[in-house]
Design brief:
Radius of gyration: 23 Å
Number of helices: 1
Shape: elongated
CATH superfamily of the largest domain: SO1590-like
Strand content: over 45%
Number of strands: 8
Length: 166
């Protein structure tokens, strides 16, 4: 009888632990929300052209960023000003170099935004990490006054291990 009880115990315990392990794994994969600040440290005009009501300007920007992301972002930003509708939209792509959550490497950042009610508002993604940031990715929002060189961001991020990408 003792042998049957021991076998039953050995079968039941793993079955009871399986949901606990599954919840722990799901919990570890949940994204984290963090905030930070950024400031433009360099904004060099590369080109400007006008097509109808639209003026398209391309800049090479360098941005200093703090918070969960600590470092610099360098890359081109395209501004489209529509003189008929008085709207300004932006699209940028940059290489982030620094640390994220204390880990070093690079990330690709892609951002899109527009001026709404006197405030530049937009969305961005970070992905394609290298170094210790190989599994880091996320998406977020940013705001800034259109004539200001500083702003704030919120980033929802997670780190996947190398087996997640197989």
């Amino acid at each position: 009888m003792k042998l049957i009880s021991t076998r039953l115990f050995l079968l039941i315990v793993p079955a009871l632990l399986l949901p606990v392990l599954a919840v722990t794994t799901v919990e570890a994969a949940r994204p984290t929300v963090s905030t930070g600040h950024f400031s433009t440290t360099s904004n060099v005009l590369l080109s400007t052209r006008t097509h109808g009501d639209k003026t398209i300007s391309t800049f090479q920007q360098t941005i200093s960023i703090t918070g969960i992301l600590m470092g610099t972002i360098v890359g081109p930003v395209r501004n489209v000003l529509n003189s008929r509708t008085h709207t300004l939209t932006i699209h940028g792509r940059g290489l982030f170099t620094g640390t994220a959550n204390g880990q070093s490497g690079t990330l690709i950042l892609i951002a899109d935004g527009r001026v709404v009610g006197g405030t530049l508002m937009g969305r961005f993604t970070v992905s394609h990490g290298t170094g210790d940031l190989a599994g880091f990715s996320g998406h977020g929002t940013f705001t800034a006054a259109p004539d200001a060189s500083t702003g704030d961001y919120t980033l929802t991020w997670h780190v996947s291990d190398s087996s997640d990408s197989d």
